[in-house]
Amino acid sequence: MNGAREFAQLFQTGQHGRLYLVSSSHGRGKTFHVYVLPEGVEAKPNHNCAPLNVDAVEVYGITGGQPGWTETYGWLHKGRWQDDFAKLVAERRAQIADREAKQERDRVAAEAARIARQRELLASY
User: What's CA 82's distance to the chain center, in Å?
Assistant: First the structure.
């Protein structure tokens, strides 16, 4: 859904410091929620739903539209957690970029090795 897809594709449900990220989907698209947990508290997971911690506060979620059909996502509360989340997003994007760059280097090296083997075989004929 609008505002959820990008983040839901970047993250799996889980705790990151005091943030608990919920990445899921329904029949119409991806869903994404962010909860702030109290200091030193470990999240009580609830199968891709809000954590079972009663003192967790949802700070990113549905801001409008009809849930399940046309919902839009955004920040429900503004604060320092937005900076922490932005850092998580930047780190995750960097990890993905590094992984993709490594895959490309491996692909190029494998192709170069294949061409070298062909040349060696043909030269030895």
Answer: 15
